[in-house]
Specification:
The protein is mostly beta strands. 4% of the residues lie in helices and 44% in strands. It contains three helices and 58 strands. The strands form 15 sheets. The protein has a five-stranded mixed sheet with strand order 1-28-27-26-25, with no helix packed on it. Strands 2, 29, 30, 31 and 32 form a five-stranded antiparallel sheet that branches. It has a four-stranded antiparallel sheet with strand order 3-4-5-6.
């Protein structure tokens, strides 16, 4: 393995090449909307959080801490070896601090980054046992038989021997919530919680200095004396100066050469673009910066303001803050909202080119973690998408980030599934250093239209599905008829009694699906009903009526049948999904008009995966995924993603892949746009038939994976069949 000095020299060379324009970072890859993440389980089921503490050391291993917020359990430190895939537990923070058996509030957290110096990792500990009142976190009062928190510690870990050393103790039983290290000068810096004492520790003399409170009474105060403690230091490695903020927006400067701590005059984080914050109130970071990193190429700091997600640069020589862009997720930017987590995200770092910022952030609903990059020289922002595991689940928290030498990005993240919390190290491929797999290609293998024997030729192919024998049912909305064909296009007969509003008649039907028993359910939009037919096509029953009351329809447009036989119907005019039992009894409804998660705006398409998950597509995007009982899971395929929108309808295959019938923004091209069950973009193909490029309304997928696409042109109406090449 190359030495750290060689790696540093290589990084400097790469940075120089980018700076002079000889090389360019891989910024032009189109995102897939999802990044494939994988867990690296540590087996620490009691872990419940993590902040900052993850680092790939010079030995190639990734070191991290998983926190615990319990009275009788400390945070745990682990290492992960990418070369072997092995996770190793290194120690309990309470025990390695020499406090085993003390029966005091434990060292539940490390809230700070790791720093490597001379073969050791340096970090600090913090308490994890809290009480919360009115949104304000306070040190927990220990129960009977337990002692108060003994205070946090500066610690080191020897990479060669595995030995921990307790270097210094925080004063007055305070935790250490913020830390940086000047490896050139052998200095550690800390901020304590809750009272915001500024600490310096000199490695050579083993001397700790407490500079006292630097932000009123910190988070121990109330009202005018309350000030949330800054969570990130800015260290200038050239001068040794350290900078940090207070929640009113002031920036404090520790001058190493003068050994002074002063406020920078005329420079503040308080500005309208970051929002309006009351520093007297808890629950947010105020005008503090959330995370900040040093850029050696231009000798500036780049930071992010917490909840607003705005990126800024800080010039320490000029004492100047410059707001650059908003690097919140695309969802957050386009909605105009703030992220769900009011403190913002700590997961900001420089990528391996030393000119691109890597950022893990959230969304207004807090349902996922998204990866954003920002190329500083070109100001090129990319939201690469949400992190997702193979089963489709998505982590919803990340307050740490590390860019691995194995072209993967690491974070300690968490997810809640079925009421259970899981916190572990995860990783995903760095999209700027890895190429996506080639997109599958679908080729048309046949195309057919009306059978000459049909008494009523197709005037439109609006939707299609398969009956229990594998024949294809085509819904013709223009002629108000439903026809049945063999997969090769031979006409078998008509379902129902044609146009009209009586029993068995249809008026502008939009969709059809077949139950496991063979019954054929038709969304009879013009009559505001669901019509049910026997397998032979004769009328059986109907349910629903025109209206906006429970179980009523204005325009039932798409339907599908869940694994348990429940019938789901989406109505774009009522902006909801109605769910019935097979007999037509209304069970429940979900959704309402709006643009938020779980809300609909002209929802046209609906499909159900084999596991019962429900997909609903808004005409202008996005597609939303729900549980069978209507609980929102995540969304994908936003308006204009890869140029496609106007999602008329969809098909879903047995694996949960979604096939959207889409049109581009200028309405000149039609295609099937395919996403997998995680919401990741897979491929696109333009729809064709005998007349060439065609319009399309929907797609149906048979058990073998053939895609039957409803196509239309000036004179052509029928089915085109596509097969994966």
């Amino acid at each position: 393995m190359p030495t750290k000095r060689c790696l540093s020299a290589l990084a400097s060379l790469v940075s120089l090449l980018f700076a002079v324009g000889i090389a360019e970072p891989a910024q032009d890859q189109q995102p897939a909307g999802v990044l494939s993440a994988r867990w690296h389980p540590a087996g620490f089921d009691a872990g419940d959080d993590s902040y900052n503490a993850v680092l790939q050391a010079s030995d190639g291993k990734v070191y991290y801490v998983i926190c615990a917020h319990k009275i009788d359990l400390g945070g745990q430190m682990f290492s992960y070896d990418p070369s072997t895939g092995q996770v190793r537990r290194l120690g309990d923070l309470t025990e390695v601090s020499g406090e085993k058996g003390l029966k005091a509030v434990p060292q539940g957290k490390s809230h700070v980054p790791f720093f490597e110096h001379a073969g050791k990792l340096y970090f600090a500990t913090h308490l994890g046992y809290y009480n919360t009142e009115g949104g304000k976190e306070m040190a927990g009062v220990p129960p009977a038989g337990y002692k108060p928190y003994p205070g946090g510690h500066f610690l080191s870990y020897d990479l060669a021997t595995g030995a921990f050393e307790r270097l210094a103790d925080a004063p007055s039983g305070e935790g250490i919530i913020t830390m940086t290290m000047d490896t050139r000068r052998g200095r550690l810096y800390g901020l304590t919680w809750p009272s915001a004492h500024f600490l310096t520790f000199d490695l050579s003399t083993k001397t700790l200095k407490d500079w006292g409170k630097v932000s009123a009474e910190g988070e121990k105060g109330t009202g005018p004396t309350f000030r949330v403690v800054c969570r990130a230091f800015a260290l200038n490695p050239l001068t040794g100066s350290v900078y940090f903020t207070v929640s009113e927006g002031d920036i404090l400067h520790y001058d190493f050469a003068k050994n002074t701590l002063k406020k920078i005059d005329g420079c503040s984080m308080k500005r309208p673009i970051f929002g309006k914050w009351d520093p007297d109130k808890p629950g947010h970071m105020g005008y503090n910066w959330r995370q900040i990193v040093w850029s050696p190429a231009d000798k500036l700091f780049y930071g992010v303001h917490g909840n607003s997600g705005y990126l800024f640069s800080f010039d320490p020589l000029a004492g100047q803050i410059s707001v650059l862009d908003r690097i919140a997720s695309e969802k957050t930017r386009t909605s105009g909202l703030y992220d769900a987590f009011s403190y913002g995200y700590l997961s900001l770092t420089l990528g391996p080119d030393r000119r691109t910022l890597y950022f893990l952030t959230g969304t207004p609903s807090g349902e996922e973690v998204r990866f954003v990059t920002y190329h500083i020289p070109t100001r090129h922002y990319v939201d690469h998408g949400a992190l997702a595991f193979d089963d489709g689940s998505r982590p919803n928290w990340a307050q740490s980030i590390e860019v691995g030498s194995d072209k993967r990005v690491y974070a300690v993240s968490k997810i809640r599934n079925a009421g259970k919390l899981r916190v572990d190290l995860l990783s995903f491929p760095d999209p700027l250093r890895t190429s996506p797999p080639p997109a599958p290609v679908y080729k048309m293998i046949e195309s057919w239209t009306s059978d000459p024997r049909m008494p009523n030729p197709l005037k439109e192919a609006h939707a299609a599905c398969f009956d229990k024998d594998g024949n294809i049912i085509v819904v013709d909305s223009v002629s108000s008829r439903v026809q049945r064909f063999t997969p090769k296009g031979r006409w078998l007969g008509e379902i129902g009694q044609g146009p009209g509003n009586g029993p068995g008649h249809l008026q502008s039907p939009r969709d059809a699906k077949v139950s496991r028993t063979g019954e054929i359910y038709v969304a009879d939009a013009g009559n505001g009903q669901i019509k049910v037919f026997r397998p032979d096509g004769s009328f059986l029953r109907s349910f629903g009526r025109k209206g906006s009351g429970p179980g009523e329809f204005l325009r039932p447009h798409a339907l599908d049948i869940g694994p348990n036989g429940q019938v789901y119907v989406v109505d774009p005019d009522n902006n909801r999904v109605s769910v019935f039992d097979p007999s037509g009894k209304l069970l429940f409804e979900f959704g309402k008009k709006g643009t938020g998660t779980g809300e609909f705006r002209d929802a046209h398409g609906l499909g159900i995966a084999a596991n019962g998950d429900v997909y609903v597509s808004n005409f202008y995007g996005p597609v939303q995924k729900f549980t069978a009982d209507g609980k929102f899971i995540f969304e994908f395929a936003p308006y204009g993603f890869r140029g496609w929108t106007f999602f008329h309808s969809m098909g879903v295959d047995a694996a949960g892949n979604v096939y959207l019938a889409a049109r581009n923004a200028d309405r000149t091209s039609n295609a099937i746009v395919m996403y997998d069950h995680r919401g990741a973009y897979v491929t696109t193909w333009k729809v064709q038939a005998a007349e060439g490029d065609q319009g399309t309304k929907s797609a149906a997928i048979d058990p073998s994976g053939l895609v039957y696409v409803c196509v239309e042109g000036r004179t052509y109406h029928g089915i085109s069949v596509y097969k994966k090449d």
